[in-house]
Structure formats: structure tokens, C-alpha cells
Amino acid sequence: MKEINTITSIAISFLIILSTAFLSINNREITPKTITINKGMSLNTVINLLQENNIIINKNVLKAKIMIQGLSSKVPTGTFLIEGKVSDSKLIDIIFNKGPIKLKLTIPEGTSSKKIFESINLLLNTNYQFEDLLTEKNILSKYDIDGSSFEGYLYPNTYYFYYDTSPEDIIDTLVSQFWKEFDENLISRANELGLSVHEVVTLASIIEGEAMLDNERSTISSVYHNRLKINMKLQADPTIQYIIKGPPKTLSTRDLRIKSPYNTYQNYGLPPGPINNPGIQSIKAALYPLETNYLFFVAQGDGSHAFTTNEKDHEAAKRIYKINKRNKK
Q: Which alpha helices (DSSP H) does 69-112 contain, by range?
């Protein structure tokens, strides 16, 4: 009897040692690494990938644990971050539960579509040809965009994308967010003003290009609304900056004479479409202008503007700005 008890104790001890080894064999400290699981990869391929990257030691132990949990046929795709103290259970949790890495993209208000796409390709380390989709008529029609491109409809916000998010899905996310913001109430307001959504977004993009202070947006909007009512050229500098290649610069008389449908110094009314992707504050400002008689405004050098009702006062405001600018030197 004593011999049986001894054998039983040895067997239990052996099982404890074996189970402990089974549970902890792949426990290790991992310096930050990313692994990419592509579509169609089998469980064996993934486990081999983990071993090749020195994330696990024993493939069979990890595979057994995955199979016990019924996950062998549920291999996900994407790029995963592995770091710190990693056990088999933590590895399984990262891959099968937490999922792939999501990368943060913040689009500031007033960003051009070109710059947005450059930022996305840089973030995802891709070379997506967004330009091919930007003016695709069938895709524009799908999203009820009455314009020649997605410019103006890629809503500025903070988004999270996977490494393998397709360009079509990215555009869908940004444009869908636009329509969530430009809701039925705003559409009704546009109708009240006799403006199409496209015209509102176009005006909002100009306001976005001009305004540096939130409390001036509706006043700037009033200037453009007042000019449109009396068929006066908008003479909006951001539309010229849109035409000129390169970073913003001080505009010359020659710049103001550039032949382009976007040149609001040469053409009456709104330009053909938005010149950037405006935020909701500028969109609302375009829809709810302050009631004023202003027809002019000039920058004061501190982000604010001086608003006037006639050209004489406007020229005086410009002279004051130049004097103040010289005195600051």
C-alpha cells in the first residue's frame, strides 16, 4: 500500500511538472515586433511565422492550445503587435481576440484631398493610387456627390485604420462620416437658402481657407453671401492659393490674373467645387451666416480680420494693417 502511494505521488508530481512546462514553455520577454497574417494563411503557417520571429519556442504546444479552444479554423488577417511578457494565452488573446493593429489618422479641417491621401499612404506604408478613385464618376454617384471629385467630402476627423484597409474602404469611411455630419437638418437649411449641398461645401471650403478664429466664421460667411446676392466677385484668396502649386505664399497681381474657373478674382459666383475638405464649423457657417452689411475684410496679422461695408473703409483698414506690420519690425 505504501508503495502504491509512493508511485501515485511520483505520478502526480510528474503531471504537475509536465503541465507547468506545457503552460509556460513559450513564456518569454519580447521586444516590440509586428507580424502580418495574410489572407489564406493556415494555422501551421502562422505558427511557423511566430517561431521564425523568435516569438515562440515550441510550435506544438501553442498549436495544441489553439485547437483546444476551437480556434484553429478562425485564423484572422492583418498586422499584429507583439511585445512585452508574452505567454501562449496572451499571444492567443492578441491574435484571436484583440485583433490587428489600428493606426490613428487625424485629418485637420481644410486639408486637401491630395495631402490626405499622402498621409494615408505614409501611415499604412502603401502606395495606393487614390487619384484613380478621386474622380471616378460611378463611385461619386454611389455617394450622391454632385461634383467632379471627392474634394470637400473627405470629412476631417480622427480615424483608425488597419494596415490592410483598402483604398475603397478608406474613402467609404471618410465620405460616410461626411454624410453623418451633413444630416437632413443641414440639407433642409441648404434648401431654404436655395443652395445645393455641393455649393454649400464649396463655400464652406473657402471659409475654412480664410478663417483662423472660430468666432469669425459666420462673419466671413456673411461677406460672401452678401457678395453673391449682389453678383459681386468673391475675390477669395484661398481660391488662388488652390490654383497655385506649392505651399501658400503672398499673392501677386499676376497670380490674381491666372485663368482658371477657380479664380474668384476673375469669375463671378462660386468656383466649380470645393478647394479643400472643410469641417463642420465652416459648413454650419456657410449655412448660417451672420446678418451683416459687410462686403470686405482684411487680415490683421494676428488671425483676426477687420470687416468693412465699403471699399473706402476697406482700403483704410489695409493701410492700418501695413502700418502696424511695419511698426512691429
A: 88-92
Distance of CA 45 to the CA centre of its chain: 34
Place of cell 462686403: 295
Residue ranges per domain, the chain?
Answer: 24-98, 102-181, 193-294
Q: Judging by beta carbons within 10 Å of its beta carbon (0-12, 13-18, 19+), is residue 151 exposed, middle or buried?
A: buried
CA distance 68 to 64: 6
Give the per-residue pLDDT at 184. Answer: 97
pLDDT at site 25: 56
In the block, which residue shows the cell 494555422?
43
Beta strands in 92-148 (DSSP E): 102-106
Quick: pLDDT tens for 28-46: 677 888 888 888 889 999 8
Residue 57 pLDDT: 78
Concatenating the DSSP letter of every residue in 29-72 gives: EEEEEEEEE-TT--HHHHHHHHHHTTS-S-HHHHHHHHHHTT-T
Cβ count near 211 (within 10 Å):
24
Please name which of 294, 248, 246, 243 lies closest in space to residue 267, comparing C-alpha atoms: 243
Residues 301, 321: contact at Cβ < 8 Å? Answer: yes
CATH number of the 24-98 domain:
3.30.1490.480
Residue closest to 121 by CA, chosen among 81, 173, 170? 170
d(C-alpha 5, C-alpha 39), whole Å: 54
Q: Which stretches in the chain have pLDDT values below 70?
A: 1-26, 28, 329
Task: Look at the block and give the residue holding cell 454632385.
Answer: 146
HSE of 259, CA atoms in CB hemisphere, 13 A: 0
Please choose, from the candidates 93, 86, 95, 98, the residue with its C-alpha nearest in 3D space to the C-alpha of residue 25: 86
